[in-house]
Prior knowledge:
Elements: E1 2-5, E2 8-15, E3 19-22, E4 25-28, E5 31-35, E6 58-63, H1 80-94, E7 100-104, H2 106-117, E8 124-128, H3 136-147, H4 149-161, H5 164-173, H6 187-195, H7 200-209, E9 225-230, H8 238-247, E10 251-256, H9 263-280
Parallel strand pairs: 5-6, 5-7, 7-8, 8-9, 9-10
Antiparallel strand pairs: 1-2, 2-6, 3-4
Amino acid sequence: MRVQVNGTSLYVDVEGTALEPDGYAMRDKPTLLLLHGGPGHDHSIFKPAYGRLADLAQIVYVDQRGNGRSQDSDPATWNLDQWADDVRALCDALGIVKPIVLGWSFGGAVAMNYASRHPDHPAKLILQSTVARWDVDRIVEGFRAEAGEEAATAAKAFLTEGSPETFAAFGRLCAPAYSPDPNFPSESDIQAMARMVPNPELTMSFMSTARFDLTARLARVQCPALVMAGARDPITPLSTAEEIVDGLPDARLEVFDRSGHFIPDTEGDRFFPLLRSFITG
């Protein structure tokens, strides 16, 4: 379905029920709102894996402004403050109260900014493989550690120039380092990327100009947060997760030693039980 939010139309999908039969009554389930990465990607990266949580929560998937199947919008509105305010407005439009908001990668930055701008709104945050401060040199070092000098050079060029040529080189030399799994990308990973509706203009523009720093805002967040990080993630290195935990008033860090950016692929047997425990805890 499509929902009008702050002057644009966002594509939204829902999995699971908000009310569950429980004897003589209907029991409320929490809402889990999923914010995808990118930017320039869409909600399909979460499917079908996160659907296993629909027995615990009603899952709301959204293609954020300028992304995926959402309406074309003014590039001037493609910024972290607007994306954050869209989360609040989307919940208001759908009647969602006290959501649990999970942000993966870029979506995690949106989630943190939303929770700092609307601190009384979320019930909980789940921050997966994300950053509160964009530091090009730190990211370049991450790719150097995981994939060598050629990948580090390609990352530096893309993150400072953002041209189609540097984007292509980044995809060729850096994308394979997102996961240390020797089988990455698997057939299911390839299928997931094929299902996505990309916006490369948004990806190139944001990644080459992003210089945000949300660390000073983290103290405003009032809800509990679960921060999940892969020890071998080059794009959101472990130090970024530690920085987030240090800045949040109520946060716990879970480190996945065998994972890069795609924790559910490599350590899903630990990742999803942790999510389930945090949602219900």
